[in-house]
Request: fold
Amino acid sequence: MASPDADRQALAERSARALFEPDRASQSLGMRIVAIAPNACSVTMTVRADMTNGHGICHGGLIFTLADSAFAFACNSAGRPAVAATGSIDFLAPAREGDVLTASAHELWSGGRSGLYEVTIVNQHGARIALFRGRSHRLGDRTVEPRTEP
Amino acid sequence: MASPDADRQALAERSARALFEPDRASQSLGMRIVAIAPNACSVTMTVRADMTNGHGICHGGLIFTLADSAFAFACNSAGRPAVAATGSIDFLAPAREGDVLTASAHELWSGGRSGLYEVTIVNQHGARIALFRGRSHRLGDRTVEPRTEP
Amino acid sequence: MASPDADRQALAERSARALFEPDRASQSLGMRIVAIAPNACSVTMTVRADMTNGHGICHGGLIFTLADSAFAFACNSAGRPAVAATGSIDFLAPAREGDVLTASAHELWSGGRSGLYEVTIVNQHGARIALFRGRSHRLGDRTVEPRTEP
Amino acid sequence: MASPDADRQALAERSARALFEPDRASQSLGMRIVAIAPNACSVTMTVRADMTNGHGICHGGLIFTLADSAFAFACNSAGRPAVAATGSIDFLAPAREGDVLTASAHELWSGGRSGLYEVTIVNQHGARIALFRGRSHRLGDRTVEPRTEP
Reply:
């Protein structure tokens, strides 16, 4: 018989998969979920040439997008749909074409329908590229799990 | 003879063009600059299917990216390169596939090497989708204008 | 017979008074409400010697506090209690002892139980000292009006 | 002979003292520095009756002020004067009259003249009341140490 922890972990994995599969934005940017746990998620993305801006470095918006995806998978990991209400980012160092970025999100706090998440974005050398903080708002009691499972 | 205002306007147009042309991220997302002035810029983007997330709405990160591009063109419009130090966004309403979003950036304040910009993102009906605020940091005294001009 | 607008204005005035009277923090800092309207409020505070920090200028926290009070009176002006969920401030210029600061708050947006407010803080010369943005969360359907009125 | 670490610690203590002594705002709010280290500081404040707002709880601005003081002492601890450029706070739980709040600040990152600090505010039971993040800007190369020491 599964333990409550194993159940929560399995739910987190199912919820992330259910949210990631139809997420065409994250998929077309080449993101991959590399770790998922209740209220936490890590996502990677390789900086492609078509992600660079006029200064020749990765567009800050796409670094935000990576963080926002990790945040989304983390705050939906209990199977109850939530969306971002706000997000803020501090850019610490540039990322360049070919860099492999990893955004790791975890919950700082939750209360009522709100949750607060911290996301750290590092490159392949472990150097911090940006710090993101987001506030989520849970929509209701619908599930994000697929409606039918074979 | 050109007036100082006309000079500043011409410089803003040249600077935006010089920054937008090599900006593969903004271009691959289909962005277009629709207005440029000293310290202000409006950019549009149509929400494509590959910009939607697992909730079936435009990925918030790409709304941030649109705002960040408008911010970048505005804060580089005096020809001195600046990058985003921080950005924050409040999401007010969802955007959907086919929506045409316009992000309009203007300078709120500048002092020393810092600038503070406000960006409003609306859809094709004028409904506000998000509000963005960014702080820029000027890099130095290099120019972003093209090195050679015929 | 009072118009709906006059009713809303009267409610805003009653709500602000009901919230300000027991607000010992705002009162002990010498704040005064100088304007109130539905979803908007202006509050003044004179920078006293005991409000200065170790750099000899007004403590940034007290500038935030002034802005937060104006925000509170504005977001409670419809008589339904709301509290601040988040606040952020950009400091633009220092304030000094003797300066008379005015914080003017207005609603940018509201949706569900959330509201977004902008507060501009200026000194007696009209120079901007700081820009504040806050997100409010409405508590429920209780009233902040005094329970008994003669 | 003092080690470099001991020197940095002694400098942090001297710098905090030099900044706290003339800080009339922090002193009149009853703040006390309870820990200081290079780039880190903890400050306590007891919520007095004259710190409560119209909802009967501690004014959020004064919680921000406590955090901002801890941030200031932390980011000035290397003896080079710095001021807050921006601050943002998420309010998690109310604080009440008599509560003893502790704000603990530490540096997340620094680069050029900017620093990024995280401050956690807890009450006497260890419950988190608020999370603060601030960005500092170093003013120049002056020292904040006292000019003469006996």
Q: What stands out?
A: The interface with chain B takes residues 88, 90, 92-93, 108-109, 111, 116, 128, 131, 133, 135 of chain C (CB under 8 Å). The first strand of chain C starts at residue 32 and ends at 37.
